[in-house]
Amino acid sequence: MALTLETDRLLLREWQEEDFIPYHAMNNDPEVCAFFPNLQTEEQSRSVIARYREQDRRDGFSFQPLIERASGAFIGDIGLARVEFDAGFKGAVEIGWMMQRHHWGKGYATEMARALLDYAFHALRLPEVLAFTVPANTRSRLVMERLGMKQDTAAGFDHPHIAAGHPLRPHVLYRTTAPASRNTNA
Predict the structure, then answer these.
(1) Where do runs of H (alpha helix) occur along the chain?
(2) Which of 7, 61, 77, 98 is the most buried (most CB within 10 A)?
């Protein structure tokens, strides 16, 4: 069963059929997808949602639709997922998000990501959560920093799902740890 989280303005809930059209449109907005190597076909968008549902069944969490509570509008997707590709942190849990362009700048990603990190650390008892993106994605990197995540400068990596030589292959890695394991002497 999909995770449900609420904040003052937002709802994180399970995928519904009505989410497909705005989700697919978001995955075909060149500005939203500027840091992804390709836009998605309908079949690819459906496949991604199916993969998210399978991850949720397996792990109890995944990327899910983010809904504006006041309007019921689909904003984007956000969530936690196990890193499944080959990297030095395979099996760790990442947090990530993608928002429709007309919802940028409203603090939605930060608001729900904070709730997700609280869930990750208190309900799931994870010791650490990761996030990653391409170096030029300053919007996402600023969200990571607002969440208290720190860049692990020694752990940058080439994303194995992006072709060698592609300008979006290099990624930066951010980390945050559970509150009890953070150094409180800083």
Answers:
(1) 20-26, 42-59, 108-118, 138-146
(2) 77
pTM for the full predicted model:
0.93
Can you give the pLDDT of all 186 residues of the chain as single tens digits?
678 999 999 999 999 999 999 999 999 999 999 999 999 999 999 999 999 999 999 999 999 999 999 999 999 999 999 999 999 899 999 999 999 999 999 999 999 999 999 999 999 999 999 999 999 999 999 999 999 999 999 999 999 999 999 999 999 999 999 987 655 444
Q: Are 117 and 12 in contact (CB under 8 A)?
A: no
Find out if CATH 3.30.1330.10 is the number for domain 5-181: no
Nearest C-alpha neighbor of 14 from the set 59, 58, 66, 51 = 66
Residues 76, 89: Cα–Cα separation, whole Å: 26
DSSP-derived secondary structure letter, 123: I
Do 62 and 81 contact (CB within 8 A), yes or no? Answer: yes
d(CA 66, CA 19): 10
Reported in sequence order, the residue ranges of the chain that DSSP labels E, i.e. its strands, are 5-6, 10-12, 63-68, 74-82, 93-99, 128-133, 150-151, 157-158, 170-177
